[in-house]
Amino acid sequence: MAVTLKRTPLFERHVELGARLVPFAGWEMPVRYEGVIPEHRAVRADCGAFDVSHMGQLHVDGPAAQAFLQEMLSNDVDRIGDGEAQYTLLTNELGGIVDDLIVYRFAHGQFLLVVNASNRAVDYEWLKEREPRGVEVRDASDEYALVAVQGPRSLERVGLPAAPAFTHAMGEVDGVEVLVCRTGYTGELGVELCCPADDASALWDAVLERGAVPCGLGARDTLRLEVCYPLHGNDITPETDPISAGLGWACKLDTEFTGVEELRRLKEAGPAAKLVAFVMEEKAVPRQGMPVEGGGRVTSGTHSPMLDVGIGMGYVPAERAAPDMALTIDVRGKPRRARIVKKPIYEREE
Amino acid sequence: MVAAESYPDDLKYHPEHDWARIEGEEAVLGITWFAQDALGELVHFEAPEAGATVSKDGMYGEVESVKAVSDVVAPLSGEVLEVNQKAVEAPETVNQDPYGEGWLVRVRMSDASEVDGLMDVEAYRAHVAEQ
């Protein structure tokens, strides 16, 4: 193996904390420190911190940037103002999902796209090839560190003011200047803090000092799956479309963007398969790629630390995609019963 | 909590990170500290039925953590006499006490000479150090 894995500015911190490091999308990343389950529970109950510096940051600037992004992205970027953010999809000509991302709007026609680590190069090249006059696309991923601080006590822990979800503003955590984004991938209250790579260690130390539990990619995956946030590469891909994936809400079909005609047709006709969430009714852990009896496939699966059962998402024929319908998953040759549930799989009892 | 790293002197070891405690004609089987640490907190033990036949180097069950699933390999051949229900009902027991409360199955050995082919603790420690 001659593959050289990239390391985030917090790599030394992870080693010092005793993390188990694994390769992920070309990066050497912490999958867990203390353990996936205690880290997961810390985020649901209090506050956890994740190094997500492997994610990509693309600047899209210039007088024509907004019009360009409106053509490239599925959601209606005209609806957000300066200081706001939006979940959106980069689509191909067939309406397939090149990536899912969050676009942040700044003053003076400046936009920041935070994209999946595994798609950073693909997204950059996609946009660069189509970049019109009056727009500059720049990959700034290596300049920044990104620390997600998530959980019901996250804002109070890091001493940041309450703010509406999907907004961003400059802020400060114990002397470290950060871009505070009220976004996340856990289903909890939280922020994603973006700072220059050189300030990453100071920010990380401050956040942990304030009581956030360090969390790895393992907990990040179980947290997002409990609340049914799709993972690109698993649940959504360039070969799957947003209508089948239940992401029609992030596609404004009355705007013009790549592949929109296909998506209008698909919405009209209805998709052949739908991405559903399910819970196992027998002891078994569903995994990506397992076949569903009668057609379909698991796209993500794990053991839910909150519900203590196997959970997952997968595509099944549309006529069998309603909540409460029974599924049988082929778990390494053994049929195991599951039941489709409404998304999200886990919701806090208020 | 998760146990501290240890490899008891009185066990025999298989290179796939399984252990056997020989008790006369019977043997108790489980996975080593190294195996449970590599997997993380276990959430499922897919156990064999009592009466099932296991063969040396063959898989007789699966252990799963949140992130991964792994075959459990039999260090010895024999017939399953008993499955540890505690490992089935509360798989995290294997992380907490891999050589005690977290044993997996008890077998009646069909070929006691197989024991000689297993590693002692010194050999296993050296094996772990190479991982």
Q: Explain this structure to me?
A:
The complex is a heterodimer of chains A (350) and B (131). By secondary structure, chain A is an alpha+beta fold. Among the domains of chain A are: 11-51 and 143-226, Probable tRNA modification gtpase trme, domain 1 (Gyrase A, domain 2, 2-Layer Sandwich); 272-341, Elongation Factor Tu (Ef-tu), domain 3. Chain A contains 8 helices and 18 strands. Chain A has a 6-stranded mixed β-sheet with strand order 10-11-12-9-3-13. A 5-stranded antiparallel β-sheet of chain A has the order 5-6-7-4-8, with helices on one face. Chain A has a 5-stranded antiparallel β-sheet with strand order 15-16-14-18-17, with helices on one face. The longest helix of chain A is centred in the middle third of the chain and has 11 residues, at 120-130. The termini of chain A are far apart. The model of chain A has no long low-confidence stretch (mean pLDDT 97). Chain B has 131 residues and is of the alpha+beta class. Chain B has one domain (17-129): RNA polymerase II/Efflux pump adaptor protein, barrel-sandwich hybrid domain (OB fold (Dihydrolipoamide Acetyltransferase, E2P), Beta Barrel). Chain B is built from 4 helices and 9 strands; from the N terminus they run E-E-E-H-E-E-E-E-E-H-H-E-H. Chain B has helices spanning 33-39, 85-89, 92-96, 121-129; strands spanning 12-14, 18-23, 26-31, 42-46, 53-54, 59-65, 69-73, 78-83, 105-109. In chain B, the strands form 2 sheets. Chain B has a 6-stranded antiparallel β-sheet. In chain B, a hairpin with a 2-residue loop joins strand 2 and strand 3 (26-31). Chain B is globular, with a radius of gyration of 13 Å. The model of chain B has no long low-confidence stretch (mean pLDDT 96). At the A-B interface, helix 7 of A face strand 4 and strand 6 of B.
